[in-house]
Amino acid sequence: MDISVIAGTSEINFETSVLRLVVSFMAGMLVGIEREAHSQPAGLRTHILISIGSTLGMLLSIYIPQTFTDFQNGDPGRIAAQVVTGIGFLGAGAILRFGFNVKGLTTAASIWAMAMLGLAIGAGLFRISAVALAIILFSLSIMDLLEKRFFQDKLFKRIEVVVRKKTSGFSEIRNVITSLKIRVHEVDIRKNNGETADKYVFYAYIPVRLDPEQLSASLEGIDGLVSYSVDMIS
Question: What percent of the chain is modeled with pLDDT above 70?
Answer without folding.
Answer: 85
